[in-house]
Amino acid sequence: MSKPDFDDIFMELAVNLARRSHCIKKHVGAVLTKETRIISIGYNGPPAGTHNCDVEFPQSGCARDSKGSCSLALHAEQNAILYAVKNNTAVEGSTLYVTLSPCLACSRIIFSMGISKVIYLYSYAEYKGIGSDEGVDFLRKFGVKVDKYEKNLEVHDELI
Questions:
Q1: Which residue in 70, 90, 110, 127 has the fewest CB atoms around it within 10 Å?
Q2: Edge-to-edge strands of the sheet including 95-100?
Q3: How do residues 68-88 score in pLDDT, each as one tens digit?
Q4: DSSP character for 63?
Q5: Active-site residue numbers?
């Protein structure tokens, strides 16, 4: 029996975490790891203790900002990083697995926190219909290793 490698395990977990999202528009999951250990997890949605978009705004989702993004939501990678830091877990040198490549704002946080590697499943640029993955470009420019996860996973339609 062959054992799955850790990249497969962590990306599959990120995909499953995305299914926990209460966002109407996009479900995204993230897993933050050090070596072979999970140090934090996250999925996109409003800050804990506020509301759930799929309950509060079931037809349209939350209000949009000037760039068309959710005005109330934290991104999956933000939630994973914030939870780790809130619990005094060092994230420097860690690897982030995320179902959607980081936006530019998240990439600045990833870099600033010393996360050394990002592995993503889908392109943020393709999802948003923009020319390039600005977040990926930023991370690579400043020395963070970024890889697209290339294996096939069973993914639910709402994640695509």
A1: 90
A2: 37-43, 29-34, 95-100, 117-122, 145-148
A3: 677 778 999 999 999 999 999
A4: P
A5: 77
